[in-house]
What does this fold into?
Amino acid sequence: MKSRSRADLHMHTNCSDGWPSPAELVDRVIARTDLRVIAVTDHDTLEGALRATERAAKTGGVEVVIGEEVSSRDGHILGLFLEGRVRPGMSAAATLHAIHDQGGLAIAPHPFWRTQRRASNGGVVHGVGWLAAALDFDAIEVENATPGFYVFNRMARRLNIGLGAAETGSSDAHILDAVGRAYTEFRGRTAADLRRSLEARETVAGRSRYKAVGLMRYAAWGFNHQRYAAAAAR
Ligand SMILES: [Zn+2]
Ligand SMILES: [Zn+2]
It folds into this structure.
């Protein structure tokens, strides 16, 4: 019986809208967590993941999976184990096809997260919703550590009871305090073990609590992020 390890499979850097640099993210993981594998998944770019991989190659102590959070027309989709960038703006089905075509795994992150604003209004559609059930996702993110996601996570778990896809837990970290707050437990230690565990649908999602100061920093990030998004939409 192989031992189990933890991975955090959804993290952002300043290559998209996160605060830490890829190197800072990797250093934090090594210094403060027991994560063996992380996937860096910046919005619509592989840059953060590639730079995190370089850092981890120097430091050792953690393995980085090349990932991207793709802005499909129907909501965010995570591609892991990618070779090349998947372009944003395609349908969810075409995005999944592009991910699978290059040997990657596709995960539906925060499937039920929607903002109040309608997409036609300049608002953002974040999750793929019920498409998570209709399409061939390799895994469903049932724990997302973003504060306030309790109900969205419950819905994702319920969805996956019917689906039986692999489950993942991820921080969706945009700040260092969030790193490892939710995690995916898998059999083995390496990224290859993680992949096998996902494919065998034996991963287990879990989470740990924020410290109050971390929550305050998350609120600060959200505040800045909303101003940034509002400015970008104008
Ligand atoms: Zn997202
Ligand atoms: Zn994200």
About this structure: The longest helix spans residues 212-233. Residues 43 and 130 are 21 Å apart (CA to CA).
